[in-house]
Every structure is written in structure tokens, then in C-alpha cells.
Amino acid sequence: MTDFANLIHDHGPIVWATACRLLGNDADAADCFQDTFVEAVRVSRRQTIQHWPGLLRRIATVRALDQLRRVRHRDRVDPAQDLDLLPGAQSDPVGESQSHELAAALRQAVARLPDRQAEVFCLRCLDELSYKEIADQLDLTENAVGVLLHKARTKLAANLDRHLPEPVGPANP
Amino acid sequence: MNPSDANHQPDQVDRAIAAARETSPTNPPSASVVAATQKAVQHELGPV
Q1: Angle at Cα B39 formed by Cα B37 and Cα B41, nearest 5°?
Q2: Complex-level ipTM beyond the 0.85 threshold
Q3: The whole model's pTM is what?
Q4: What distance in Å separates the CA atoms of residue A45 and residue A161, rounded to the nearest whole number?
Q5: What tens digit of pLDDT does each residue of A107-147 get?
Q6: Contacts 24+ apart (CB under 8 A), A66-75
Q7: Which residue in A has a C-alpha nearest to residue B2's C-alpha?
Q8: Which chain A residue lies closest to B3 (C-alpha atoms)?
């Protein structure tokens, strides 16, 4: 029988890092962290787990995406408004403020992607898994991973361009 | 590296990825989060 206390100890940091990168704050990451391990218990009842870190990272990614989508539907805030909710955002240096704005816009844009594209994007670009690792985890070919990633990046680029202001330049008369 | 990554020029998406990574919390899960998770897992497992 799986020792879940050890599992949380050994693989908790992976789950936590995945949740934090996608959700951007401790409180939401805490919910995702707990949900991930409870879901892992349920999955382990149905099948033998060959690779716990891979399973846990995938569950954490799916759960975090679910949370992002719930928040998006509940709050309907745009990235610029989201900035005002960040502690100290008003007094941040410009660079840090822009980073928060970009990160918030990316999270909202990822939440709009189809499930598989969002998963592949997060596993590749936020968790930095290889194409092969992603293909193994999602039962896809590496080529399919590449296609999904390309589609995701194209949609994200369009979304970010639409929601983020252009850099300020000289005013045209 | 995958061939599709070769010759890749950083764009708005890359900058957003970097921003998401650098603005995310880097602390480990707190003891209270771990304890609450262990309790929830134990509840899900049921009596041993």
C-alpha cells in the first residue's frame, strides 16, 4: 500500500512548484496542493501508478487550470484590473509591475485554451518537461505534443497582444 | 532540443512565461498546508 505521508514529503515540492507557477499565489496553490493528493489517492485505487512524480504533476496542472477557469468565470477581471489586487502593486517599480501584468495576462490566456493545449503548454513552458516526458505522460506522440504546443503558443500570442497595451512611444499628431 | 525550438526568437509569450516564473512564490509548502493535506488524504483513505 502506498505511503502517502512519504509521497507528500518526497513529491510535495514538485506539486507545490507546479501549482504556484500556474496560480501565482500561495492561497490558491494550497487548495490545488491538497486537491492533487486527494485525487492521487482516487487514481491509485483504479490503477497501479508507475511514475508518481509524472502523475502528480499532471493532476496538479489539471487542477490548477480548473481553478484558473473558475476564477476567470467568477471574477471576469482583466489583467490590468488584476494588477490592482496584487499587494504593493501600486508602489512596485515599473519592471516588476510589468512582470506581474504579463504573468496575470498569461494565466488568464492559458485558462482560455482547450484542455490538451493548456496542459501541454504548462508542462513544457512552465514545468520545463521534455517533449518525450510530456508525450509519455499524456499518451501522445512527440509530434502531437509539438503540434499542440504550436497551437497553444499561437493562440496565447494573439490573446496577449489583444489584452496588453502596446509599449508607449512618441505621440502621433 | 526539439527541432521546433531551434532558431526560436523570444516573443511576447516567452516574456510572459519568464514573468510567470519570476513572479511565482518560491517558498516550499508551509507545514500547515502539508498537515492539512495529510489530513485530507487520510480522510480519503478512510480507516486503516
Answers
A1: 70
A2: no
A3: 0.80
A4: 44
A5: 999 999 999 999 999 999 999 999 999 999 999 999 999 99
A6: A67/A23, A67/A28, A67/A31, A67/A32, A68/A22, A68/A23, A68/A107, A68/A108, A68/A110, A68/A111, A69/A111, A71/A28, A71/A111, A72/A108, A72/A111, A72/A112
A7: A131
A8: A146
